[in-house]
Amino acid sequence: MFKKILFATSATPACDHAARVAFDMAQRYDAQISIFHVMGIPTRGYSQVVIDVKTGEQVELDDEYTAWVKEEVKIYYSKQLEKADKYTIEAVVGFPHREILRTIRKAKPDLVIMGGSTGDEEESVHKKNAAGSTLQKVAKSASCPMLIVSRPAASFWGGLSKVVFGTDFSKASDAAFNFALKLMETFNCELHIFHALDISSMHLGRMLTQDEIESKIRESLRMIRGRYINKIKDINNCSFDVWEGIPYVEIVKYAREKYADLIVMAHHTRKMDRADTRLGSNIEQVIVRAGCPVISINK
Amino acid sequence: MYEFLTGYMFWLSIGICLIGLLVQFVLYFKGLSWQLDRVAYKQYPALGFKGAARSIIRWMIPFGTYGWRKQPFMTVIFFGFHIGAVLVPIFLLAHNTFLKEKIGFSLFTLNPTLADILTWAVVVSAILFAIRRIALPEVRILTTAYDYFILLISAAPFITGLIARYQFGDYTFWLTVHIFCGEVLLIAIPFTKLSHIALFFASRAQLGMDYGIKRGGMKGKGMAW
Amino acid sequence: MPEGTLCNKKPIDTDEDLKTLLNDTGGKKYYKEMKALDVDSGLLWNTIKNTCKSRMKTWLKICAHCGMCANSCFLYLINDCDPKQVPAYKIQSTLGEIIKKKGEVDNDFMHMAMETAWAKCTCCNRCGMYCPHGIDMGIMFGYLRGLLYAQGFVPWELKIGAGMHRVYRAQMDVTDTDFTETFEWMIEEYEEDYPGLTVSIDKEGADIMYTVNAREVKHYPEDLAEAAILFHLAGENWTVPSSGWEQTSLSMFAGDWAACKMQVEHVYAAMERLKPKRMIGTECGHAHRATVIEGPYWAGRKDGKPPVESIHYVEWVAEALRTGKLKIDPAKRIKEPVTLQDSCNYVRNHGLKDATREIISYIVEPGYFVEMTPNREHNYCCGGGGGFNGIGLYRPQRNKALITKRDQILSTKAKLVIAPCHNCWDAIRDLEEEFKIGIKWSFLKPLLISMVEVPEHLKPKE
After folding, report:
1. C-alpha distance from C423 to closest chain A C-alpha (Å)
2. Domains of chain C and any CATH numbers
């Protein structure tokens, strides 16, 4: 299932946890790992000058420079690369999210792995004029599953044995479910299906009574059964539950309780308003808080 | 001397001036190339005419353009010089008396006091022009001896005219000198920058056509000069 | 040395030569060779004899040396009123001198002329508006650039740029396949948010043929998506050509007239192939100037117009808002102080001052729009026009030039600058990077998308 992994990295400590998972997966599943690094942002109109992402300085782009950057990336990951036998390193110039999406489209990997945000958005004027971080933009449009490791705590990974699938019963969630099911069948892991009932008054405009909550829980459990359970072959290896609360908090708690190795969720392709980018959707909060990697599916 | 200057030389100098200017004017328009200039002059005569007219007329009005308003002192000196420099030679009573003798009729004539004021304005403005050339660095860097020369031969008829008019010194002498300066000026006009008397209109018309046809004339109000 | 290996009079015509020149990072060897490059005085004088006619000859001759052009030029003003920056002086000391000397000028002179033509003038044409004789020094600098290019004295990035147009018919190494694939990719990315979003490539007889700036394909493909989305929402029958899609012309900045001709003829060929009712370009100033305003003359078209009626993007947006094809949700209009950059190439030089302001009246809440001073045709160049933005050798001069626009923006106290032009957008981004005055800046497309109402039948089904 994971034969071709694309690991998009800034080759800095911010991506170390993602690197750990990426190389581990490559080794574990005997996958080819492509290390993809965006080294510079074009800055001078139609000319060849780029701003180096690490130094923030302007450099003239040529073959020599590209080769040097690739070498640097190789050195940075030298320890992990010792054990990897199928790998490539690519360094390109452009806006990170755009180039990552471009290469996803061309190379069609089975999985893209990325780390959390690499910096304050206010830092570079190039980041300023577009809403959303690289992560958000890639997650929104990636045509393959995207695995995000945001915290060090989320990167101590021992393989796939317990997967949590969070759903909101949308069409995108169905796609995410299919992926989670495939994982279950391929790796013979446990699948735990979870729905969070959003009871925050912000969402509903009023407080629900306990009876209302419990009836909604029952309804959601019914939906899980109808939509997902009948598709699972080995029902001994799965469980499901519905808890009420603030969705991302509940999902993180549920995953913690189940000792999940992975959370699979749908990414909703919504237009990103400037106002929304700070708050983020549920999945973005889960990514930032979960104690394990999160896979985002949007198709 | 006087006879020579007011006889044969008069016709020669006026002839050179007028024919010379006409030739310059015609050659200018003949030498325009729609392809090299990148303006389709002949294809849009109405737009071209409108653009040319606006371009010329606005600049002939004191403070009528952003350019004039940006440089108020220069505008005052400029019009102080040019209004008199154009009106006085053509409409002065003394000149028209002479003209009537020569060709049988005369043009409208200026009130003498007005003519005096205008001529003084010309002379004072000429001096201010010269000072401007010396005092302002952005003008100084462009100024050459040639510019002072032009200023001198332009101002000379007016200065000598005033001297004659106020009858300082020997009237006959200064009158002769005045006529001589006038004729020097007339002959110089087609061969020096003074050809701007005709070419100002030509050049402005060209730019007016450019903006009127290619650079915005088709999009509404036209260039806000 | 008559010709260097990199710096010579030969234009770049092959991909190989392009890559070779590109690899000379920053043009180090190129500029070194330029110091020894001979001037072909015969060629220079011959060219002048053949191409400098009445208009330009008279301009140079009739200049009254009055100096009124001085404080119309933003470069003069920003350089502490250095007399050497007076437009009349700049052109007389370069082109005027070449003509006086009948082309007998030396390498040092040409270096000085190159710096004057590319670092002391952005060809914004503002000086021509302030000269009593109507002498347009910006145009003369364009002409001078042509002379210098033919002699090999052109900045490195522009020699490459002109070469790009010769080899790729685009300002960057973007092929036709890159273009069509990127466009289709963008449609894929956005079609879920906008069901029914498509792009028809090479559709004949469409209402609109859309042309772009190659850098959108390479680095800002969202721009292509946004254009597609806006046409889609407006219900337009539009297409893009698979070939002849690039509207820009670095060759115009470089003074490579032959390449300019090739470039626009390529786009005109697309127009003639697809026969759209109109051609609309992207938000770019010099692209419009090159392809729609000057282009027809390079292509020898007598009526001075492209084969098909061609309008600028702002004209289409104004029309779409006016006719209701695009409806703005009043609640989403801009409610912070905002100002507008008047792009020289289509405002001063094509009269579109009112189109942009009409758009503002729809997208900005009344009371929030502040005009720059001066504005409309009298507005100043962004600081990066005429290729200034990209030339490394003259970067310091360019950065100084940005101060004019910076100060204009600061006086308006605006938080957002609307800049419907790629060069102006770049210049304003650079001025924010350099001076950190805390502004945002934007093209029209993203602003429109954030506030346009999606018609019911085009909304995504939940």
Report:
1. 7
2. 39-154 (no CATH), 167-311 (no CATH), 330-451 (3.40.50)
> Of A44, A45, A63, which has the smallest distance from its Cβ to C23's Cβ?
A63
pLDDT tens, position by position, A128-176 = 544 457 888 888 888 899 998 888 777 776 778 899 999 888 888 888 9
Chain C partners within 8 Å of B206 (Cβ):
55, 134
Report the C-alpha gap between B176 and B170 in whole angstroms. Answer: 10
Q: Are the CB atoms for B75 and B93 separated by under 8 Å?
A: no
Task: Note whether A175 and A221 are within 8 A (CB).
Answer: no
Q: What are the residue ranges spanned by the domains of chain B?
A: 2-25+72-195
Residue with tokens 């990077």: C433
Which chains sit next to A, with 3 or more Cβ pairs under 8 A? C
Q: Where are the alpha helices (DSSP H) in A188-292?
A: 201-204, 210-227, 247-257, 274-279, 282-289
Give start and end residues of each alpha helix (H) in chain A: 16-28, 63-76, 78-83, 96-107, 125-128, 134-141, 171-187, 201-204, 210-227, 247-257, 274-279, 282-289
Contacts of residue A241, Cβ cutoff 8 Å, sequence gap at least 6:
A192, A193, A194, A195, A221, A254
A47 vs C189, C392, C423: nearest CB = C392
Task: Report residue C338 as tokens.
Answer: 């905002």
Q: Which of residues 407-436 of C touch B (CB under 8 A)?
A: none
Distance (Å, whole) CA B159 – CA A135: 81
Instruction: Report helix angle B112-135 to B72-91, nearest 10.
Output: 140
Interface A-C: count of C-beta contacts within 8 A: 67
- Give pLDDT tens digits for C161-177: 999 999 999 999 999 99
pTM (two decimals) = 0.91
* The Cα angle at residue A102 between residues A97 and A104, in degrees rounded to 5: 95
Report the run of H or E that residue C440 belongs to, with start and end. strand C440-442
Dist. CA A138–CA A97, nearest whole Å: 6
Report yes or no on chains A and B touching (3+ CB pairs under 8 A): no
Length of chain B measured in residues: 225
CATH number of B2-25+72-195: 1.20.950.20
Is C1 part of the contact surface with chain B (CB cutoff 8 Å)?
no
Question: CA of B221 to nearest chain C CA: how many angstroms apart?
Answer: 8
What's A49's DSSP letter?
Answer: E
CA distance A11 to chain C (A): 22
